[in-house]
Amino acid sequence: MVLCNIAFKFRVYPTKEQQILINKTFGCCRFVYNHFLAKRRDAWINNKQSINYTQTCAMLTKLKKDEQYKWLKDVDCTSLQNSLQHLDRAYKNFFEKRAKYPRFKLKKVRAQSYQTRNNSNSVCIIGNKIKLPKIGLLRAKIHRNVVGRILNATISRTATDKYFVSLCVEVDKSALMHPNAGGMIGIDVGLSVLYTDSNGRKVDNLRVFKRHARRLKLTQQRLARKKKGSKNYEKQRKKVVKVHEKIANTRKDYTHKQSAAIVHENQIIAIETLRIKNMVKNRKLAKAIYDSCWAELFRQLQYKAEFTDTRVLEVDPFYPSSQICSYCEHRNFNVKNLGIRMWTCPNCGAVHDRDINAAKNILRQALKKIVT
Q1: Predicted local confidence at residue 102, as pLDDT
Q2: Whole-angstrom Cα Rg for the chain
Q3: Are strands 266-272 and 183-189 parallel, antiparallel or unpaired?
Q4: Neighbours of 332 (CB within 10 A)
Q5: How far is CA 22 from CA 76, 79, 158, in A?
Q6: What is the pLDDT of residues 287-343, one digit of tens each?
Q7: How confident is the model at residue 215 (pLDDT cuts 50, 70, 90)?
Q8: What Å distances lie between residue 72 and 62, 80, 291, CA to CA?
Q9: Closest to 147 (Cα-Cα) out of 130, 125, 123, 164
Q10: What is the DSSP letter of 226?
């Protein structure tokens, strides 16, 4: 039996009292994170002393006994310990050069979250409600059956004041496996279309940001005319955030549908290893590249493939897939010009669509990797 962790995310509808307690927990977790970040930073600057997670846990216990900080006892204790774990992980990521130095968390950021552990069934689903420590039963939209052992729960609030609970569940991977159709496909992503596959299919690019650009511009202009801190400013701020949320949700929904269809239909998927950080340095194309959401599409293909026995193979980004004839493998250097969308091979006379030909070459190059 192979165990794996998956997440189930549900929308929850807390009462006013529960909202107050959840928001208070956000504040306490933020305070603990910032307090001990300052402690660890000052200890190193002043005394060259390194403080680890175990020491911060002992310091937190003493801090809660202080009369000045007794309000820390009003919230879930495991959420405060998880804040210390997140701080310790942030330091490890910094020392291993995976991230920048940890920064202080800000109160003004509307999107907040905290994590709590499941101890003695303190986190569970009862009917159409989710039970959480200190919070109690939260009314939720349970749209999926949760199978397995709940490890922890992450409670989050979006910038539009919507609340969600994400349950991390340990399950048997074989119970989630489902077969694929056994096909093979090469994928060449683009801007005019989201991607072109080796079977000749072209999937439209929604260009979600471009579609909502005018609405976003108007809402931001109206926000700029409001006085900061006023009620009208807060109302208009929510309207701006709702437009951004609409863009993000539409893009995420589309990429989920496309990635699921690709994984279910194919056993081998060939993609390019794109260096998107370098590509967006081109200011003329940066917005269009971000709007296409290639990285998210590839990320979803990678993790969904694990549950269908599908292999996702990556091809070197410097492989000239557009310049090589997919029939005779003759390389045509004239195709370096991006304006050429159709071209004829000077060696065998085959007529190629630039994107379809590139997708076929990506698949063939990936299959060579399997043979070697």
Answers
A1: 95
A2: 25
A3: parallel
A4: 18
A5: 10, 11, 13
A6: 999 999 999 999 999 999 999 989 999 999 889 999 999 999 899 988 888 888 898
A7: very high
A8: 11, 9, 42
A9: 125
A10: S
Task: At 367, list the tokens.
Answer: 């299959």
User: Is 17 in contact with 135 (CB distance < 8 Å)?
Assistant: no
How open is the CA angle 24-170-154, to the nearest 5 degrees?
Answer: 15
Q: What is the DSSP string of 324-352?
A: B-TTT--B-GGGGSTT--EEE-TTT--EE
**Per-residue pLDDT tens for 20-63?**
999 999 999 999 999 999 999 999 999 999 999 999 999 999 99
* pLDDT score, position 99: 93
What does the block give as tokens for 122? 């303190």
- 114-118, 178-182, 226-230: which range is least confident on average? 178-182
Q: What is the pLDDT of residue 175?
A: 83
Give the tokens for residue 248.
């993000």
Instruction: Please report, for residues 108, 170, 172, the alpha-carbon distance to residue 5 in angstroms, rounded to integers and kept in the order given.
Output: 32, 5, 9
Q: What is the per-residue pLDDT for 58? A: 95
**Structure tokens belonging to residue 332:** 């045509």
Given a cut of 90, whether residue 178 has pLDDT beyond it is no
As annotated, the active-site residues are 188, 272, 355
- Give dist(CA 336, CA 71) in Å, integer: 65
The secondary structure of 88-151 as a DSSP string is HHHHHHHHTTSS----PPPSS-S-EEEEEE--SS-SEEETTEEEETTTEEEEE---S---SEEE
Which amino acid type is present at position 160? T
CA dihedral 317, 320, 321, 324 (to 10 degrees): -170
The answer to whether the CB of 41 falls within 8 A of the CB of 101 is no
CB 327 within 8 A of CB 350: yes
Unique residue bearing structure tokens 């549908």: 257
CB atoms < 10 A from the CB of 245, how many? 15
